[in-house]
Amino acid sequence: MNKKRLWLMLAVACGLSLLLPVNGLKAAANTTTLAADTIIHFANGGTNGMDIVVAAASTVESFTLTDEVGNTKLVFELDTGSALHLKSNGRKNFEDSPNVASTDCTSSSSYSTYDYTATSDDYTLTITFTETDNCPTSSGSPGGGGGGGGGDTTAPTISSIEATAKDTEATIVWTTSEASISWVVYGGTTAYGNEAKTAVYKTAHSTTLSGLTPVTTYHYQIKAQDSSGNASYYGDKTFTTLATSTTPTPPPTTPAPSASTPTVTTPESSVPSANLDMKLAKRLTGRLLLRVERGGEIWYVDTKEYKRYQVTFANALFVFQKLSLGITDANLAKIPVNGTSETGNVALRNRLKGKLLLQVQKGGAIWYVDTKGYRHSVTWANLMDLFRKLALGITNANLDKIPAGSL
User: Fold this and answer.
1) What gap in Å lies between CA 228 and CA 110, rounded to an integer?
2) CB 209 within 8 A of CB 169
3) 275: left (phi over 0), alpha (psi -120 to 50) or beta
4) In the list 150, 172, 230, 288, which could disulfide-bond 391, CB 3.0-4.6 Å?
5) Is 309 within a domain?
């Protein structure tokens, strides 16, 4: 994956997030429902740092983002009945084309809104907004009294940051100078790739990052936004996870060898071969496994040697390089995408169940074929959420019966 690409972040209040290309690529080929309180955060362009909030559930076929000098455009593809509801805490003025709706700039509100419901299929709606084009602000408070206009323009200050790391998780605490929603982006490099969010306006914040890899350095950055839409961020920081703690088992007491008792040397192994269950390993070949007794670790059982490999943000690239099967666009098209009603090539679907596929003709895109023969697109944005969704829960005892692979 080219890490130099620019990304648009969709951060959902419940903690889910999605990274989308900002240079005119579609967000989805099928109908997409944007949940209420979804935040469209613009990380670059003429509206750097601006947030647009989906005020209520909105349904679109797809949308794209294009950056131009001094302004940004959102282009939505809508079918009949598709509803779009947007809100800007910074009171941005939404300029649409064609002119089918107007921005609600109610002066007593701290935000502006835009609402439109499509009345025909294949409808294209373009919305343009800039950093300087805002709704007018009232010159005084409602009902008279003192005070000037302009509103709050000061972003919250982030301070008192502390990170406490364990082997597979880390807790980060921080404070903001005013009540704010706040979030942490983190990952193995300054490209980050994952996010944990607090969706409540407050000054004392805390979040726990789980599913981490032991003895690994992680980069993280904290961002905050107040109720007026003023956003700020703190520079890159790091923490290093600890080694997994183990309690050494004393060696058994054995009698000294005698002339009649030969000494036998047993090769070292994390799991004695007598405890391995190859029938279980073969039955779970190609499956994603969720280690339910240890913080939700994700494991994948390869389809050749029936070995298990842990999947994390830090090692995912190596897992895909080692275990993926190359596939052409033509053959990939014969495997239906999850959520569609297509049949595709049944024989090919059955043969590739449980496989990780490398789309060799499209920049190395990764796909996973589930147990029903449908393929799922795997990206840095959806990696852990997608794999957890598709994973089968497994106990420590049963996971230890599957031989561990080495990257």
Assistant:
1) 7
2) yes
3) alpha
4) 288
5) yes
Query: Same domain, yes or no, for 125 and 13?
Result: yes
Helix, strand, or coil (residue 385) = helix
Q: Residue 147 domain-assigned?
A: no
Select, from the ranges 74-88, 109-123, 186-200, the one with the highest average predicted confidence (pLDDT).
186-200
User: Does 121 fall in a domain?
Assistant: yes
Question: Looking at 19-23, 48-52, 208-212, which range is the least confident one?
Answer: 19-23
Rg (alpha carbons) of the chain, rounded to whole number: 26
Burial (CB < 10 A; 0-12, 13-18, 19+), residue 389, is exposed
Q: Please give the Cα distance from 233 to 262 (Å, whole number).
A: 67
Domain that holds residue 279: 275-399
Specify the amino acid at residue 94.
Answer: F
The answer on 35 and 110 residing in a single domain is yes
pTM over 0.90: no
Nearest Cα residue to 194 out of 318, 379, 393: 379
Going by pLDDT thresholds of 50, 70 and 90, the confidence category of residue 287 is very high
Q: What is the pLDDT of residue 169?
A: 92
Dihedrals phi, psi of 234, to nearest 5 degrees: -105, 145
Q: How far is CA 110 from the centre of its chain?
A: 30
Q: Are 405 and 309 in contact (CB under 8 A)?
A: yes
- 172: tokens are 């980060």
- For the record, the structure tokens of 155 come out as 């972003």
Residue 304 phi, psi dihedral angles, 5° rounding: -105, -55
Q: 164 versus 90: which is more confidently predicted?
A: 164
Residue of 9 and 59 predicted with greater confidence: 59
Cα→Cα distances 112→294, 363, 377, Å: 45, 40, 35
